[in-house]
Amino acid sequence: MSAANPLESDALDRFRWEHRILLISTQEPLSGSLLDELNQASGPIRERHLLWYLFSGEDVVTNYPGILEEKFEKALRHFYRNRSHSKHSVLLIGKDGGIKARQSRLDLKALFKRIDSMPMRQREMREQDGPGG
Predict the structure, then answer these.
(1) Are 95 and 16 in contact (CB under 8 A)?
(2) How far apart are alpha carbons 27 and 33 in whole angstroms?
(3) Are the beta carbons of 17 and 94 closer than 8 angstroms?
(4) Is the distance from CB of 32 to CB of 57 less than 8 angstroms?
(5) Using one digit for the tens of pLDDT, what is the confidence trace for 85-123?
(6) Residue 77 neighbours by CB under 8 Å, 6+ apart
(7) In what order do the strands lie in the sheet with 50-56?
């Protein structure tokens, strides 16, 4: 998928088997500590094929390199509201499209540990190490 392609409402299905999705809802300004934490972890996030979407009110920030279409943003918000449960502000969606983790606050260390324990991620790490690895 080209980075220039806009995200559409079926994007979660199109990202299946390619990306893990992290949906985060916050009341803090999008220029705050959550965004700093996500930006500082850009290497480990990229290694784990994570696309994140940080929502605050009507605003959204993402590491997706393409255009964020309004209909996709609405679909993400709808997906989040229907699956997050009120006490969870963070959802991790696996490459298979299933919800892999719910957190009340962003804990990247725990999310990375959870992702790294997944069979698909373990295979990815073996492939990155190369033959004999």
Answers:
(1) yes
(2) 12
(3) no
(4) no
(5) 666 689 999 998 888 999 999 999 999 999 999 988 888
(6) 55
(7) 59-62, 50-56, 20-25, 90-93, 99-103
Query: What are the two backbone dihedrals, phi and then psi, of residue 87, each rounded to the nearest 5 degrees?
Result: -85, -5
Question: CA-to-CA distance for 55 and 130, rounded, in angstroms?
Answer: 37
What are the boundaries of each domain within the chain?
A: 11-129
Q: Do 34 and 106 touch, CB atoms closer than 8 A?
A: yes
β-pairing, 50-56 vs 20-25, is parallel
* DSSP letter (8 states) at residue 84: S
How far is the C-alpha of 65 from the C-alpha of 59, rounded, in Å? 17
Residue 107: what pLDDT? 96
Helices (H) and strands (E) in the chain, counts: 6, 5
Q: Is 127 within 8 Å of 109 (Cβ atoms)?
A: no
Using DSSP's 3-state secondary structure scheme, residue 75 falls into helix
Instruction: Give 11-129's CATH code, choosing from 3.40.30, 3.90.1150, 2.30.30, 1.10.8.
Output: 3.40.30
End-to-end CA distance of the chain: 29
